[in-house]
Design brief:
Length: 354
């Protein structure tokens, strides 16, 4: 169910660290449209939820008396509430956070390590944007575990994995995008076109997410590194907290990674990726904008369309948050509006229709 826009967003922060509760409460309470409650463990949280139902929960995963993942699953099975995971970046924390996304959480923010004074402006901006996005999210039943796709032996492909792609596919996503990207990338056959992706997600988590997709997919999926070549049978995901651009290197296209300031309130930014694809690929590209709040990617997708590329937006019915696609459609940047289930097929059709 999607929350109606009715004024104040009621946020419940559940974390056993007094410092973290103080930081998150201070940052969120500065926003005029948010009120904040805090709890040190899930049992206290349940008592507070019985009195005031929150619109969004910001949840730690390592908690006393009941771990966060168990609490999340309980929420989603009994009375689903949009939940943002606030996680540390240790390896165990990143894997647990990805499992939480599978269990129904709508996004991840990194746990602040220091006091309010050291919680940087950019981190606070990401947190407040994520909470607002969660408050508008369409909550879905947790997805079934994805199995590695097995395709029948295809006829000889028009190009081999690792060769030059016929068309570069650029994909941008935010809230709800991990589920959407999983559906799209695990549907790609070994000879799929070269794909570049921006998913709004903190650093470290993008590497874990890419590794998980690589295990599930028939194509190679990796967190992008400086100079990585875009090639058939490969998807490159922008590293968290870094922009990714595409440029030509001779007959090849490669990605470049940088830490320039936020663009469209994000780093990585979909706009940064799309604009670079428009300049370097022209009509030899396909742009796809998926679920997410805000307008990141809209200007870049319009530039891609104006450069001759085909463009696709995920439809409202299958979006967790119909923000970025809605803005892109309104701007005139979109050729095709498709349900998530049809986007992989559209990518493959576009790649072979040159």
């Amino acid at each position: 169910m999607q929350r109606e826009d009715s004024g104040t967003i009621k946020v419940l922060v559940v974390d056993d660290s007094a410092v973290v509760r103080q930081v998150l409460e201070a940052v969120l309470s500065q926003e005029r449209d948010m009120s904040v409650m805090v709890a040190s463990d899930p049992l206290i949280a349940q008592q507070k939820m019985a009195r005031v139902r929150p619109d969004v929960i910001v949840l730690d995963l390592e908690l006393p008396r009941m771990d966060g993942l168990t609490f999340l699953r309980k929420i989603m099975s009994e009375d689903p509430i949009p939940t943002v995971i606030c996680s540390g970046v240790a390896a165990r924390g990143t894997e647990a956070a990805l499992r939480a996304l599978d269990a129904g959480a709508v996004g991840i923010v990194t746990k602040p390590k220091f006091g309010v004074g050291n919680f940087l402006y950019e981190s606070g901006l990401v947190l407040t944007d994520m909470v607002r996005s969660a408050a508008r999210a369409r909550i879905r039943r947790p997805a079934s575990p994805v199995q590695k796709r097995r395709f029948p032996s295809p006829p000889p492909p028009p190009h081999l994995p690792g060769s030059l792609p016929k068309r570069v596919v650029a994909i941008g996503a935010s809230t709800g995008g991990t589920e959407a990207l999983t559906e799209i990338l695990t549907a790609m056959p070994p000879d799929a076109p070269g794909i570049v992706v921006v998913q709004h997600m903190p650093e470290v988590f993008t590497a874990a997410f890419a590794k998980r997709l690589d295990r599930l997919s028939q194509i190679e999926v990796k967190e992008a590194e400086q100079g990585d070549r875009i090639s058939a049978g490969r998807a490159l995901i922008a590293p968290g907290n870094h922009h990714m651009t595409v440029r030509r290197r001779g007959v090849h296209s490669v990605v470049e990674i940088n830490s320039d300031p936020l663009v469209s309130r994000h780093r990585p930014s979909v706009d940064v990726l799309f604009c670079s694809v428009a300049k370097t690929q022209g009509a030899n590209a396909l742009g796809v904008i998926l679920t997410g709040m805000g307008s990141d990617g809209v200007q870049g997708l319009l530039e891609m369309k104006n450069a001759g590329a085909e463009t696709v937006a995920q439809d409202e019915a299958t979006c967790v948050v119909f923000g970025m696609p809605k803005e892109a459609i309104a701007s005139g940047a979109v050729d095709w509006v498709l349900p998530l289930s049809q986007i992989a097929s559209k990518i493959l059709m576009a790649a072979h229709n040159l």
